[in-house]
């Protein structure tokens, strides 16, 4: 399985610290940098669009990406990842293309 990232685009705008995360080409989550406190308290927040939802924060981008990957991999069963709405039958096939 291959994780990749691209700058997240919203309304045609991107920020250098806002990443869309993909698993085998499918959008599965987001990692972005928050600067909401005094200098030195910035965090990288991560979230995955799985069911049930998962997310957290880390002090660096690399740690946030590792945490996101660690949260997603155990959820993949038989090449499928339960996405938001999976209780209604929505599963994402993440087999290699």
What does it look like?
The protein is mainly beta and 97 residues long. The chain is built from 1 helix and 7 strands. The strands form 2 sheets. It has a 5-stranded antiparallel β-sheet, covered by helices on one side. A two-stranded antiparallel sheet has the order 6-7. It is globular and about 45 Å long. 16% of the residues are buried.
Summarize the topology.
Layout: E1 3-10, E2 13-23, E3 26-34, E4 43-48, E5 54-58, H1 61-72, E6 80-82, E7 91-93
Antiparallel strand pairs: 1-2, 2-3, 3-4, 4-5, 6-7
The H/E string reads: EEEEEHEE
Distance between the termini: 10 Å
Helix-and-strand structural type? mainly beta
How is the largest sheet built, in terms of strand order?
Answer: 1-2-3-4-5
Tally of extended strands?
7
Unreliable spans are 85-89
Largest sheet at a glance?
5 strands, antiparallel
Q: How confident is the prediction overall: mean pLDDT?
A: 82
Share in β-strands: over 45%
Principal-axis shape equals: globular
How much is the radius of gyration in Å?
A: 14 Å
Q: How helical, in percent, are the residues?
A: 10-25%
